[in-house]
Structure formats: C-alpha cells, structure tokens
Amino acid sequence: MTTSASDASTSKSSPLRRALAFLAPGLGAFAAIFAIVQLGAWSGALLLMAPLGASCVLVFALPGSPLAQPRSIVGGHLLSTAIGLALQHTVGFHAWSAALGVGLAITLMQLTRTLHPPAGADPLVVMLGGAAWSFLWTPALLGSALIVAVAWAFHRLLRRPYPQRWR
C-alpha cells in the first residue's frame, strides 16, 4: 500500500495532527479546484477539465511523487491534449483513434519525462467533446499551471516541500 509523506510523519503524533494530515490533501484539492472555477467564471474562460481533479490527488496527497511534479503535470497535460486535438482534427473520433490517442500520450509522456497518469485521459476528453485547438491553452495549459501554483502556495503554507524538482 502506498502512503503519503504526511502518513509517515504523523504515525506517532496526536490524533488532531493525524486528522489534519488526512484532511490537508482534500483541503488543497478544494483550494485548487475552487480557484480554477472562480477564475474561469471571472474571466469567462474554460479553465476546468475533469482530469485536473485527478491531478489534485497526486499533487496534494503524494506531492513527492515524480508524477506530481510541475514538469509532469503541465507537460503531461499539454502533450496529451495536443495528441487528442491532432487526432480529433485530422481523423475524427473512432475506436482506433481514441485508443491511439491514449497509447501515443503514454508513450510520448514517457519519452519526454512528463508522465502524469491523469493526462492519459486528455485525448479522450478532447475527442469526446470535439474540442477546438484553443483547448490546448485553456483549460490544458492554464488549468494545469494553476494546479501547480496553488499546490506550491498550499505546501509552502503547511511548510512542506513542493515541488521536489522543477525539471
């Protein structure tokens, strides 16, 4: 079973500290998604897509994971969204193009050291929604960058190291 960094550090602490350690990832995810939705409403831009919720699981519950680092979050979402858009706008949605999109996303994320499991869903989101090329900027780039920014601030507030590395 995989545990978060906060689990190990709270095994001998007070019940209140343990409770706060388990609540912190949820509070961080709340802050990130709330900020994204509010900024989107304020700006009129689409900043939210479902895979960003899964990105929050990694960045707030397992912030030390290589999969939760800024390069993986932003790069993974950008690359996978671009793959989905390219397929959507060249061949359209088919069973084989949806499967190819996910397979290519995984392969290219591995090759570019931007592996981020939630981004594996991006080609499907793009193709099922018939997204325009602007989807690459909002929500993929801006939404993932906002997750990283909120995570950075949140972990600093809790005096936890994040990110472990920028590249």
UniProtKB/TrEMBL annotation:
Keywords: Membrane, Transmembrane, Transmembrane helix. Residues 22-163 form the HPP transmembrane region domain. The chain crosses the membrane at residues 20-39, 45-64, 85-111, 131-154. Pfam families: TM_HPP. InterPro entries: HPP, TM_HPP. This is HPP family protein. The lineage of its organism: Bacteria, Bacillati, Bacillota, Bacilli, Bacillales.
